[in-house]
Amino acid sequence: GNYRLTVRAANAWGQQGDPASVSFRIAAPAAPSRIELTPGYFQITATPHLAVYDPTVQFEFWFSEKRIADIRQVETTARYLGTALYWIAASINIKPGHDYYFYIRSVNTVGKSAFVEAVGQPSDDASGYLDFFKGEIGKSHLAQELWTQIDNGQLAPDLAEIRTSITDVSNEITQTVNKKLEDQSAAIQQIQKVQVDTNNNLNSMWAVKLQQMQDGRLYIAGIGAGIENTPDGMQSQVLLAADRIAMVNPANGNTKPMFVGQGDQIFMNEVFLKYLTAPTITSGG
């Protein structure tokens, strides 16, 4: 409510000075008057604003991938992000072209306001995403290794353990390199195989598999090529397994990827198509 406080000085003889008064209000803060959403690469920055600035007020941030029709269900349906003056929601799961919902309310030492909804999307700048991936890929150890010429003189001392097996029966060559360090382990395996299946058909394959155990979780990457005689006929295929797949043309020192596949999305700089079939097309202008 609204209050008025009046005070005045008094001495031991009962003499009093002139009174001084101040009016103040003790109440929950007003809800944000507007919410500014700034798109970024796989992120959205939410900045709430009050109609009248109040330094005692902060904001609670709640996040949802779907709109919550009943605002009373925010605390049980949305994900609480934190309390601050602004919030950056960042994740590779925040995908371009998708709507994301923020539910924000003002808070102070007395109480909380009602929620205010805001909806936004991350950046739709495809060219900018390729530059973003260029930086992410370029700073990885894998990319640095790819850009560096192999020095054959340094190979032998660096090999931890190599096992090679050649099996004449199945015409298979397998080479494995592995190393353990405390609770971490890593292995690289290359396989070349030509075999006869139960239908007396020849199948051939080549594969390189990498796996690494870290904090009890297994990470896998690999590339394989094969030709198989299937019931539907001969089938050749190349398969890739990785969190991120990119193609780079290093001509003239260029390391900007032509395309990047991450999650279930593909990012491209320029595409020339003869035919395109798409149930839904969204244009960013």
TrEMBL record:
Name of the protein described by the UniProt record: Host specificity protein J
Pfam families, per the entry: Ig_J (PF24421), Ig_J_second (PF24489), Phage_Tail_Tip (PF09327)
Domain Tip attachment protein J Fn3-1: residue ranges: 1-29
Limits of the Tip attachment protein J central straight fiber domain: 187-283
Tip attachment protein J second Ig-like domain boundaries: 31-133
PANTHER family noted in UniProt: FELS-1 PROPHAGE HOST SPECIFICITY PROTEIN-RELATED, GIFSY-2 PROPHAGE HOST SPECIFICITY PROTEIN J, PHAGE LAMBDA
